[in-house]
TrEMBL record:
Alphabetic keyword roster: DNA-binding, Transcription, Transcription regulation
InterPro entries xrefs: Homeodomain-like_sf, HTH-type_TetR-like_transc_reg, HTH_TetR, TetR_CgmR_C
Segments of the chain annotated as binding DNA: 26-45
Single Gene Ontology MF annotation: transcription cis-regulatory region binding
Residue stretches spanning the membrane: none
The protein's name in its UniProt record: TetR family transcriptional regulator
Occurrences of domain HTH tetR-type (ranges): 3-63
């Protein structure tokens, strides 16, 4: 029950961030969206900082859980590219708002706090994908191409640059998976 409430609150934070940006993500707004009292929210997350830390931890855990289920090199490459290509304005809005919110919780009123530094959360999440992608491909050049394409898509999305149409994005992912699969060098076994 408590886990369900925590997850509902974190889901509400995602919705509020995507809908109204970091300035709209007040404790009251998140509590209302989650259909809990402000006291109920504070029971699970004693501060706004703790709320964002919870969202970051949930995001990290989701990536790690997904990585644990991927068995074939092609799956790793495909899921990475799908993960880094925000597919709609709602997701793009959430990412932008989360970046702004993490920056605000880190600096408060312009003074760096003693709170944990959450500003590099996206760097940490991308780093969680890096080794599995490199290992899945084997060839360092092809792996770097795939990783940099993913980084470019992600940064383009949050910068508001033109995103390729869905069919082009899907075709590009398919092509990169094919190239990565062809470049895959399985680890040498015992001789």
């Amino acid at each position: 029950m408590a886990r369900d409430t925590r997850d509902r609150i974190l889901g509400a934070l995602r919705v509020v961030l995507a809908r109204g940006g970091s300035s709209a993500a007040t404790l009251e707004a998140v509590a209302a969206e989650a259909a809990v009292s402000k006291g109920g929210l504070l029971y699970h997350f004693p501060s706004k900082q703790a709320l964002y830390e919870g969202l970051v931890a949930q995001t990290r855990a989701s990536v790690e859980a997904e990585l644990g289920t991927l068995m074939h090199p092609e799956e790793v490459v495909r899921r990475y590219l799908e993960y880094v290509a925000p597919r709609d304005e709602h997701e793009r809005g959430f990412i932008l708002a989360l970046i702004n919110a993490l920056q605000e919780t880190r600096t408060g009123s312009g003074v760096v706090t003693d709170e944990p530094d959450l500003s590099d959360v996206f760097g940490q999440i991308f780093a969680a994908w890096e080794e599995p992608v490199r290992a899945a491909i084997g060839d360092p050049i092809t792996a770097e191409i795939v990783l940099q394409v993913g980084n470019g898509w992600y940064l383009s999305a949050i910068a508001g640059l033109r995103h390729p149409p869905a069919e082009v994005l899907t075709g590009t992912i398919d092509r990169l998976v094919s190239v990565a699969s062809a470049a895959h060098t399985p680890p040498e076994g015992p001789r």
